[in-house]
């Protein structure tokens, strides 16, 4: 579990022009292309305090930072998805950005859910592997799928991933890639290799993610290690390389979603980052870049779940149905610039015209076969192997 201080940007911070993250290990079809199990083994601020929602007519969604459209920078801005949903449904929605890291969030909600106590939010959107853990523990409700007919619009392979093989406990929010994020005003050049993160020229200015599967995954791939069949013994060289980076002072810090501030401010010359965040940052700061390493990147997805004890299950279903309409999903994609799980979004972006239409041709949002061929996702870890990986990673990161 992460113990280090992590500052989550507020909903109106300057980081609002960026977005959020993922990881993956399951059979996934993106952009009309099928990705088999070998490629994908699955692919808040005021939350988790045990507070109940303020009423049955209010829906509470706790999500990652910068993961929804915000017209004019305002979270509930006119014409945005939150505003339009409230008008269409007649119910209020409380939207918070309390997820910064999967393990950190788990540590926050575990004391309550383990005692069958509600955590407050009606919907949370953790990464697929953590969502699978919550399902196994019995901490999430079965979804009222009969009230979410638009789930028929989802990319088929995301509806019953290995993390939720019956498809009854989770539905996808967004998907994305992990790769190298860099600030050219500090690096002086684009970075395209994991080895660049260990270049002594950037000593003390490199960031790594607290998401073990992203950080260790990219390092492992750079060493020629296949992510589809992970074992602790096979991945030991990747842990060794990470530890060398920490011991030498090459790595400045391990972060959650808050790496975007360090990157933009230049505290990080480069770091492991998530595609959608960096695409959005680069829109206002051309020095910010993102690359899939020559050795490959990781692919993942975050997924919506209803925690046990949620007070507005009906509202949660209505929300899920609303955002799975391709027109509504396209508005979210135009802002967050991650891979949408909804079929038809590419066409809707083209209809929107302007900057939104240009996104329809982005390889980071609608990856083609050649881009997908550079990506890998983690195979499943059994409980014993998971414990070994987590312990070793925590020892290195100081978490």
Automatic annotation (TrEMBL):
Q: Which GO terms describe its molecular function?
A: polyamine binding
Q: Record keywords: Transport included?
A: yes
Question: Is Transport a UniProt keyword of this protein?
Answer: yes
InterPro entries (UniProt xref): SBP (IPR006059), Sperm_putr-bd (IPR001188), TAT_signal (IPR006311), TAT_signal_bac_arc (IPR019546)
Enumerate the UniProt keywords alphabetically.
Periplasm, Signal, Transport
The UniProt entry's GO CC annotations, sorted and at most eight, read: periplasmic space
| Localization of this protein | Periplasm
Q: Name one Pfam family in it.
A: SBP_bac_8
* Protein name (database record): Unannotated protein
What is the protein's species of origin? freshwater metagenome
